[in-house]
Design brief:
Structural class: mainly beta
Strand content: over 45%
Number of domains: 1
Order of helices and strands: EEEHEEEEHEEE
CATH architecture: Beta Barrel
């Protein structure tokens, strides 16, 4: 099965101190064995517009009223947002409830992979030299690390092969660390070990690829 997917997630633990509600779009591939066990590979792009304490992130280079001066002496237009990605390998089980919907039922998945997230700093027309190239890295708080994923939901594949989807709750647990050498706003070298969590509602549209069924012939 090939599928695109969308998730709406709420952060918790250390992640909620930095971000608000986030979104994810991605794609994956699932192989279904005859005994309804599954093997899955998936990647997702994370994004969101809610950054907590946004005024403090660039406080060391802003004016008293929170503006950044451009190279021409005017105010630069700066926008902060969340960016990141996840990818991983999962396995699970499809629990069906008999014919005729042999490929529909309760979907349980678990797996491991990696997550990365950071604060994206977008400067209109790149007018602020304080936020170019390596300088920007001192403010983006990029973190990554290993992650575990749990999913529980329902999968429906119609016998007519026209309506195919899954939906459910996904939980992501991650042990991340900062990957930047220095935080400019805090004026410190980061040495943080974080526990991040995302709880999300996830939906996907499935494109099933069926193998050919075997045929038996009887001769009399």
């Amino acid at each position: 099965m090939l599928y695109p997917t969308y998730s709406l997630s709420i952060p918790s633990f250390d992640m909620k101190d930095r971000y608000g509600i986030s979104h994810a779009v991605g794609a994956g591939y699932t192989f279904v064995f005859k005994n309804k066990w599954l093997l899955n590979l998936e990647g997702n792009f994370l994004f969101g517009n809610n950054i907590k304490n946004a005024g403090d992130i660039l406080s060391s280079i802003t004016t008293r009223d929170g503006h950044i001066i451009s190279q021409s002496g005017t105010y630069s237009q700066v926008a902060l947002s969340e960016r990141g990605y996840t990818f991983g390998l999962k396995t699970g089980k499809l629990i069906t409830f008999g014919k005729p919907e042999q490929n529909s039922g309760l979907l349980l998945m678990t797996g491991a992979g990696m997550i990365q997230h950071k604060i994206r700093i977008d400067v209109s027309d790149n007018t602020a030299p304080q936020l170019r190239k390596d300088y920007k890295k001192g403010y983006d708080h990029m973190c990554n690390g290993p992650a575990l994923t749990e999913f529980i939901g329902y999968q429906y594949l119609s016998e007519a092969k026209r309506i195919n989807f899954f939906a459910g709750l996904e939980f992501t647990f991650a042990w991340t660390q900062s990957r930047r050498a220095y935080y400019f706003a805090e004026m410190m070298k980061p040495n943080e070990s974080r526990f991040d969590m995302l709880t999300g509602l996830k939906i996907g549209w499935v494109i099933p690829i069926y193998g050919k069924s075997g045929h038996e012939y009887y001769y009399y």
